[in-house]
Amino acid sequence: MGADAVVDVVGLTKRFGDKTAVSALSMRIAPGEIFGFLGPNGSGKTTSIRMLCGLLTPDAGSGHCLGYDVRTESMLIKRHVGYMTQRFSFYEDLSIRENLEFVAEVYGMPSVRNTVDQALDRLGLRDRQAQLAGTLSGGWKQRLALAACLLHEPRLLLLDEPTAGVDPKARRDFWDQIHRLAANGITVLISTHYMDEAERCTRLAYIAYGNLLAEGTPDELIRSSGLATWRVRNGDSNGLAERLRAVEGVTQVVPFGRQLHVSGPDTPALTARVEPILKATGATWERGQPRLEDVFINLMAGTEQ
Fold first, then answer.
1. CATH 3.40.50.300 placement within the chain
2. Quick check: 201 pLDDT over 90?
3. Is 283 helix (H, G, I), strand (E, B) or coil?
4. Domain spanning 7-222 has what CATH number?
């Protein structure tokens, strides 16, 4: 990435009293990327996003978002960023159209009616424009929130766990929209807990307890994890799982239907210790590819607080 990076920050740190919520965060995001931000609850994802969009001033560190200084030009950043929070933050006793008109007026859009009409059509909300926001399902509330984020034509979208609590079809529709926006040049930073969503991102960063643990494309993170994974089939999967969890060097044993996914960091040692048990139980097994979920669980090992 060159000097045109949409986000380019070094050492961002934020403390609340004696607690460090984010510690020395450094990252760069290129134009048009869908950058996934992953981590457990309380890991610092929301705090990081709020520093990037100008809602929080870092205690240390420096950098730019959309070319504006994150410490001194927060008001300019806010004008060009669309921020979608975790919680639904619209007036539930107003209709979809009324909520969007209010937001458009706050942004000072020159033609509120035309701007809202375009937003309704873009997100498929036209037929529901008179419906009260408080009566919408999670998926339709999500569409309303995204429509509001796009009213002022931002260059960067910051989406904080936007698909939490919505059904699988609504999640898929939402991600299709995100990819269309990225194809049109909008950069997206999105935090998520869902591994299938992480796989749809251009690049990923994993943060835990305020520290950035890993960054790269999904394939890069899997390759660099050093994990070896076996897919094991056995009729007594519960009993076998307990035996395998007790083996030195096995870091994960995860049931998937009638299969067990067994992972560890040292391939030769793991093979030597696990294969005798599998042979003795009559299990069948094959070497498999680690999944992103395996990688991130492995990253968390040793970092829990």
1. 7-222
2. yes
3. coil
4. 3.40.50.300
